[in-house]
Write a structure and sequence with these properties.
Elements: H1 2-21, E1 32-36, E2 46-50, H2 53-67, H3 71-77, E3 78-85, E4 93-96, H4 101-106, E5 110-125, E6 131-144, E7 149-161, E8 164-173
Helix pairs in contact: 2-3
Amino acid sequence: NLNIYKMKKLIFLFIVATFISCDTKTIEINKEGGTWNSWDESGVSKKATIGSESDLEIAMAFYNAYGDMELDKMVDLSEDIVKFHPGNLAGVVDVNTSNTDFVVERQSTFESIKRTLHNVTPISTVGSENYTIVSINFTEEITYKDGSTSKDHYFERIHVSNGKVNRVVQWMRP
């Protein structure tokens, strides 16, 4: 019994020594970085940070609604006017989203849209509230009503402000 008692005591001391010798190490992770040019009058660049998860969900619902040709859903997710920078045209189009006319016209020759998502990143800036820019990288394959197809690669930024999409900026590569 004495040997069992000594063995238990040794095991207990070993366990206690192990816990005492464990050192909690705190690692700091930089949650902000880079520069993001601000659109306000200050002219001071801000640090980028990971954007809001809820804004990401809004942007993805908007992205999916376009691909699924659910235009009314796009209207519900948008501000009254959305600034659209199309990847295949120069300039900016102010899209009145009180109706679906612009998107109906844009999709008028489409039979279907197939989108393959590659990655999505919500970006915000330090100090901004209720504003996220969701960067989406995807391939889009369109089947037209005449049977032809096109396949292009897009990088798109969907801007979400106060829970509504207010800007879509596209870059396209065939």
